[in-house]
Fold this sequence. Notes:
MutS, DNA mismatch repair protein, domain I; globular; 5-stranded mixed β-sheet; 287 residues; DNA polymerase, domain 1
Amino acid sequence: xxxxxxxxxxxxxxxxxxxxxxxxxxxxxxxxxxxxxxxxxxxxxxxxxxxxxxxxxxxxxxxxxxxxxxxxxxxxxxxxxxxxxxxxxxxxxxxxxxxxxxxxxxxxxxxxxxxxxxxxxxxxxxxxxxxxxxxxxxxxxxxxxxxxxxxxxxxxxxxxxxxxxxxxxxxxxxxxxxxxxxxxxxxxxxxxxxxxxxxxxxxxxxxxxxxxxxxxxxxxxxxxxxxxxxxxxxxxxxxxxxxxxxxxxxxxxxxxxxxxxxxxxxxxxxxxxxxxxxxxxxxxxxx
Length: 287
């Protein structure tokens, strides 16, 4: 009998990690990557997280921190990040063909539980290979459902003793783990849904898991029921192996300063046309 399980692979501090691959001097140094217009922080090194600068913060509000802690501030390079993402995903696919690329730095894997004598060793091998071949550190969590795999990956990231991998399947302390997962950190729980749950004294993943089934069906509708079942180990969210072709394709960037030379604008447009054409060919579409 087959038993499918799920793993979530999440690249650690992805944009910063990409920059460190090509500039090793950044390793161990507090580093942030900024959004297109160099306005907000979109990636932080662990050193910056420890300082307490939040994700999405406008950089100008933390200029004193930048000076005090000698933080390296970088403009984003999405061409580089896209290329590094492709390399990581190709390695993952070579080790597990059933892969769903969820975002530029995340992917779900699905495999038969009984095909592997030791899942812990398997995911450690994946992590080591990606790090060795690309220089990108990743965290991997394994669970009976996508939702539980997401939770496992959070633990792999936060607990240093896991060394980047965590398998939540069959653990005796799973309820204790769920008690420490805040409701807002459950995949699929938005702000309004979080507010509703808290009004009904549901504060953790553990609280959610042990809600009365009839109450869930009555008050939480389809999405809420799906999350409930997933927390209880019943897979409800299928893998999506093929991305639907996009109806529109856009490549855009914001310049960090005013342009004074029309040549710079022409070069940017030429580059973006090339990138958009590559995206078009990749999904086998015509313009």
